[in-house]
Design goal:
- About 80% of the residues lie in helices and about 0% in strands.
- With about 100 residues, the chain is mainly α.
- The termini are far apart.
Length: about 100
């Protein structure tokens, strides 16, 4: 149910609606990320099982390798959308803030 935030006259109610919409968006994004991680795990597991069926030694990907492949997919997606520079600038700002906080 899409509700216009301008239609509510009460500013508190409007803020609550905006927070609810943001919460729903972030939860949807996190579910998508979780599904992609699961998909990568399943692919890795399938590849290992295929190797076993062929008589080779199974190779199960480590967490670091899964993370790298996840990052690779993320950057490919960003490249396709044309948002790589924007993402890197945001990460740079976040790292600067972490450094300032630690000092």
């Amino acid at each position: 149910a899409v509700v216009s935030t301008q239609s509510t006259g009460d500013p508190r109610k409007r803020d609550q609606l905006i927070k609810l919409i943001n919460k729903m968006n972030t939860s949807e994004k996190s579910q998508q990320v979780k599904a992609e991680r699961q998909k990568l795990k399943v692919q890795s597991r399938k590849k290992a099982m295929d190797n076993v069926r062929q008589g080779k030694n199974p190779y199960f990907a480590k967490k670091g390798e899964l993370r790298r492949s996840e990052l690779k997919n993320k950057f490919e997606k960003l490249k396709k959308e044309g948002n790589v520079d924007k993402y890197l600038a945001k990460r740079r700002k976040q790292n600067l803030q972490k450094d300032k906080k630690s000092l």
